[in-house]
Amino acid sequence: MSVFSQATQERFQTLLSHYPVKRSALVPMLLFAQDELGYLPPEAIREVGELVGASELAVREVIGYYSMLRLEPAGKYHVQVCTNISCMLRGGDDIYRHCKERLGIGHKEVAADGVFSLEEVECIGACSWAPALQVNYDFHQELTPEKVDEILRDYRKKAAAR
Amino acid sequence: MADNPTLVNITVNGQQLTAPAGTLLLEACRSAHVEVPSFCYYPGLSLQAACRMCLVEIEKMPKLQTACTVVITEGMVVRTDTEQVHRARKSAIEFILTNHPLDCPVCDAGGECELQDMTFKYGAAESRFTEPKRHREEQQWSPIVYFDRPRCILCYRCVRVCGEGMDVWALGVGNRGVAASIIPNHSDHLQCEECGMCIDICPVGALTSGPYRYKTRPWEMKHVGAICTFCGDGCKTTLGIRNDQIIRGDNRDKSGINGDFLCVKGRYAFDFTQNPERLKQPLVRVDGELRPTTWSFALETVAKRFQRIKSAQGGFGVIGSTRTLNEEDYQLQKFARRVLGTNNIDHHRTADFPALATALAARTNTPGTALPLANSSSLKTAKAILLVGNDPTNQHPLLAWNIRTAYRNHKTRLYVLNSGDIKLRRQAFRMAVIPAGGEAAAIRFLNGEADSVPAELTMVGGPDPKRWPQTPPSVPQKIAEGLQDFRARLRQEQDVIIVFGAEVRGEAVRELVAFGDTLPGNTRYIALADNANSRGAADMGLYPDLLPGYRPVADAGARAHFEQLWGGTIPAEPGLNLPQMLAAAAAGKLDALYIAGANPLRLHPSAAEGLRKAFVVVQDMFLTETARQADVVLPVLCSYEKNGTLTNTCGEVQAQKRGGMFEGAKSDLAIIHELAELMGCGFGPAAEDKIFGEIRANVKGYDLSLVQLLAGRSALAAPLNETVAHRDDPELIQPNNDTLFTAGTLGRYSTTLNSVMERRLQKESK
Ligand code: SF4
Ligand code: SF4
Ligand code: SF4
Ligand code: FES
Ligand code: FES
User: Fold this and answer.
1) Ligand 5 centroid to residue B49 C-alpha, Å
2) Contact partners, residue B220, CB within 8 Å, separation at least 6
3) Is the ipTM of this complex over 0.95?
4) A86 and A154 part of one domain
5) Which residues 56-75 of A have a C-beta within 8 angstroms of B?
6) Which domain holds residue B25?
7) Under DSSP, is residue B80 helix (H, G, I), strand (E, B) or coil?
8) Which residue of A43, B46, B132, B742 shows the fewest CB atoms closer than 10 Å?
9) Are residues B503 and B592 in the same domain?
10) What is the pTM of this model?
11) CA-based Rg of chain B, rounded to a whole angstrom?
12) How does pLDDT run across A8-66, given as a tens digit for each residue?
């Protein structure tokens, strides 16, 4: 029994066919797996490992290497605040501090209600519009604390609406 | 590497140096005693270049280079001792120490730590890092493996030795950068072979062993190079002794036939020596109960009773051990034949050595011709290996390690013929899975001309139907094709080493040798027997029909030789074998049974009742089920507490050295000698070297170099040279089928072996 949806399984097969060595598909497969499940539980690790012919330990090594891959569930909205050089120069640290206060959680923590989680990240490629943060796959730039409040409010509404 | 590599000239610190092409600069320097410090480099494992300790200056190269990865080239000019190199080493250590606690005073590795030595030498103990060090609590990954993460310098030796060397792949690296850490395969614990290779290869005290941690300091122990008492491979294990007790086993000095290899038994199972159940006093049965007594009373009881039975011309039976030393085995059979006057002597057989000796008898060890026997290390460089039966990963861990090494470093082609899905299949060039018991038929097929594969080999539903996903009708066809291809490939191989387990016996051994004869080059053989001195017991003549060196009892010449040597007569008739003796005892036809270090009731439990009819003397360390039936139990020393020699399954003879001591017990040798003395047939002093001298002069193949043995090296005994007339008793061969965590009767008494979860899992799956 697979822990993945039919669509994801098919995606895996396509990915596997792209590379001469199966293992090469490991990272993209893990990303898709995480997108579907929110994180990488042991069953997912095992299944992906079997598909690429790698031991659980080898898959865990890869997950540990890439900070974007998670072994624990994140919040519904995963707030990733950049504090790398460009953002830092334009107040990224303040934005991060502000997020911590507003959400009441720290680095790699999940709020009790499960709506938000927070992570301090390295450059997300939005330097020209620093300071920036990313919520799941969406970008928010040229931030101020007020703007952050607005963004968080919007997401909270969205979460409540569902 | 080629047989005749071209030589390359380089200059190191102004000194001219020559080394074979392909040599790593670091090795070339070391061969000339030029020190190049290293942490991550480890001979035989893949290159890592992680620690940067080995940086050296090479002319015409702009930056310092890692000597552990640079291959020497003609004219290379190298400097290892410059200001720049010293600075590089110092800063490499400074980086390594970023989070290292330098808690040497409490660390197990203190005193034998490579990092401690280097820090001492290059003095980087003061650091420019002002950040607090990251601390992590120590973790226990198994009863054997502990991990102290802050001490880890991320050299990856443990990861590589477990993966590449052991083929277990139980250790990995989690996270990265400053957070990187070694992780075990089951998140918070290990499930593996528990060999401890990772622990001993760790250059620091990050991996430590449960049995040894916090017990002592390396300089407080005496270190004795002993031979492992468990399987038949004969690894050297360096015992750390304090107050006559064994505290540790390892082989960090890489001496012996095993280099740095040891399995869980050689490293940790020595703890049986301190098992509280160990017998400290002789026991004599009084009013139906075994009661403690003195040595003199016990020995006199035995001698008197033996004497009485002998005078009345009663029947004796003698069962020897497969863990006692050659000198003891030799004296035991001498005692049986010369003092008790019987050929009723046997041991627990786990390989058909006489059949191999018979099959090879014709070729003799003529000077100048290559021996038809292989030693353990020849596996490491073999071109091709044929393995029939057995599961070396479990039963011959060293030989399995050597085979994996050959596969890794020399692309050795391994042919596996087995009824099980053994782990060495992963190194196999060709694997043929046959039905259990099909080994003899398979060998006949290999040696035959017919293309058709006998139906008994292609039976569907062989050992593991999962391996045959095809629809049933095509399966026999596939198996047949597999075997045909197997044979065709194998026939093209040259200088093959043929390794075979207990599945191959009697006629099948001769057929296998006949097949080996058809292969080009020098075919060599290894017969696999279970215990530390199984081969020695066979060579020393613990057989009812064979004298030492496989010389038939029935052969008047052979008898005359030993009669003259021992001064007395040897019965001409071959005696009873082990099950026959048990049966005779039950039938009241044996008056006495003398069992020296064996536990026959383990495999023949129904014989317990019958034993009570005879006078039974048992020499053992523990009150085994056999000892419980005895009239007299004599506590003995174990192999680690004695001097003498042992012969491994390949025939490699090695000196055993006394490490521990045990109050209250005597060696089997001392007991045999005292009994002989009391019975008026003195054997002289129980001096191992004297007896080994007699063995050297009188047992075929044992005329070995004493210098070599005393220097701690091995010498291959090839007891060939004459026709062996031996009764084939294939059904007498009963392998233990031990796993990594069992060892016949002895394994029961090791707390460590029984504590690992892998052992519990094995028990549950049975
Ligand atoms: S004890 Fe042996 S098998 Fe287990 S992790 Fe260490 S090296 Fe690997
Ligand atoms: S645990 Fe030891 S052997 Fe393994 S990486 Fe760390 S320092 Fe090296
Ligand atoms: S391989 Fe055999 S001889 Fe070597 S340590 Fe293990 S049990 Fe002992
Ligand atoms: S530094 Fe923040 S997006 Fe690049
Ligand atoms: S020994 Fe060369 S980099 Fe570690």
Assistant:
1) 4
2) B242
3) no
4) yes
5) 56-58, 60-61, 64-65
6) 7-96
7) coil
8) B132
9) no
10) 0.92
11) 28
12) 999 999 999 999 999 999 999 999 999 999 999 999 999 999 999 999 999 999 999 99
